[in-house]
Amino acid sequence: MTHPLIVGVNTAMFDGIDQETTFRIVHETGFNIIELAYNQGYVGNLDPALFGDENAARVKALFDKYRLRSVALGCTINLAGEDAVAQFSKRISFASKIGATYLNTCTAKRGDYDRLVHNLRALAPEAADHGCVICVENGGDPDYDAFSVAQEGRQLLEDVGHDAVAFNFDAGNMVSLRPDVAPIEHGFEMLGNMRHCHIKDIRTQNGEFFFTAIGRGQLDYRPLLPALAQHNIPCSLEIPLRMHRQANTMPLRGANPVPVEQSREVLLQSRQALETMLGRALG
C-alpha cells in the first residue's frame, strides 16, 4: 500500500508579509496545511498578542476561508531561559486553539542542558493535557547545540522521560551545525522518535548557507520521503528565504521581506520537485 506524504508550508518564507496574503498563496499553490512560523529571533520579535484568543480566532477564520488546517506550530525559543516555561505554555495553549498537534522548537545551548531538561519536564505534562507533542529540533547554530545529532536527542528524550516530547528532524540545520554528518542518512536514525519533519534545501556559497527551493540545493530527499510517508510523519516545507546562516552558522535576517511572487515560485518549484522524487502527485 502506498502511503501519502503529508506536506504543509512553514510560513517563515513569508516573513514580513501579512497573514491573509500568506494564507492565500499557500492555498493557490495547492497546499492545504500550514505551519505558522512563530520562532523568536528568526522572524523578528514576536508580539505576545500572537498567542492570544483574538489571533487564534483570526487564524481559524483564515483557515476556513482558504481551506487550510494546522498540524504543527513553529515556536522556537530558548527552552533553558528563565521564563521559558511561562512563554512556552502560551504557545501550547495557542497550538491547541488552532488545531496544531506538534510544537516544533529548537532547544538551547549545550551549557544550559540541565535547565533545558528541567523545563521540558515541566512543560511535557501540560502539552499532553492539550493533546500536543513538543517536537525538539536538531539545532542549526551554536545557540541551539544541546541537540544536534540523534544520539544527543535520544539522551534528551530519556532524561526528560515523557511521551509528549519527540523529534522534529531538520536536515538543513545539520548541514550548517554538523557538517561531519550525512544529513539525509542521519534522518533514518531519528525515525523511531520523529513525529514531524522540516524539509528544507540549502546551498553553500562563500562559506555561508542559503535556503532555496527543494531540489535546487545540495540535499537529496529521495531516500527519506517514502520512509516519512510510511511512518505517517507529517512534514513542512521550511524555506526561510529572508534569512541565511553566516559562516559561523548564526542566522542573519534580511532587512526587507522577500517579494510574494518569489515565494510563490519557490513553493511551486518545491512542489514539483517533491512530486518528481515521489513519482506521484502530492495530496
TrEMBL record:
The keyword Isomerase applies. Keywords: Isomerase. One of its GO terms (molecular function) is isomerase activity. It comes from the Bacteria. The keyword Isomerase applies. Residues 23-242 form the Xylose isomerase-like TIM barrel domain. InterPro entries: IolE/XylAMocC-like, Xyl_isomerase-like_sf, Xyl_isomerase-like_TIM-brl. PANTHER family: HYDROXYPYRUVATE ISOMERASE, INOSOSE DEHYDRATASE. This is Sugar phosphate isomerase/epimerase.
